[in-house]
Amino acid sequence: MANPRKRVPENVPGDFFVDSTCIDCDACRQIAPAVFGEAAETSFVKAQPVASADRRRALQALLPRSGRGRQCTRTASPFQ
Fold first, then answer.
1. Which long-range contacts (CB under 8 A, 24 or more apart) does 31-39 make?
2. What pLDDT sits at residue 62?
3. 29-71 pLDDT per residue, tens
4. Helices (H), strands (E): how many in the chain?
5. Among residues 79, 74, 22, which one has the least CA distance to residue 45?
6. What is the mean pLDDT of residues 7-34?
7. pLDDT, position 78
8. What is the spatial distance between Cα 79 and Cα 44, in angstroms, rounded to a whole number?
9. Burial grade of 74 (CB within 10 A; 0-12, 13-18, 19 or more)
């Protein structure tokens, strides 16, 4: 599980974030390209999901590799 204290500085503010334990596997960028971007050695949240489809994909991106380095700080239905 990602650690809020280890958030990478490239993240935009909000509930979804990437921390420094990200292994830059590209899974989150493939699953939710509108939300996740690529920095020098890690992924980051480039835009917090607003549309329900983007939120659903962002939540799906937490699953590969046990969500290592990616986190949502608030539990909510992906269908909101």
1. 31/57, 31/60, 31/61, 31/64, 32/57, 32/58, 32/60, 32/61, 35/61, 36/61, 36/70, 37/10, 39/8, 39/10
2. 85
3. 999 999 999 999 999 999 999 999 999 999 998 886 544 555 5
4. 2, 4
5. 22
6. 92
7. 40
8. 23
9. exposed
Tokens representing 17 are 């974030």
- Is 46 in contact with 12 (CB distance < 8 Å)? yes
What residue type is assigned to position 33 of the chain? P
Count the residues in the chain: 80
Q: What is the dihedral of CA 39, 27, 6, 17, to 10 degrees?
A: 90
- Enter the DSSP assignment of 12: P
Q: Give the C-alpha separation, 40 to 33, whole Å.
A: 17
> What are the structure tokens assigned to 42, written together?
């890690």
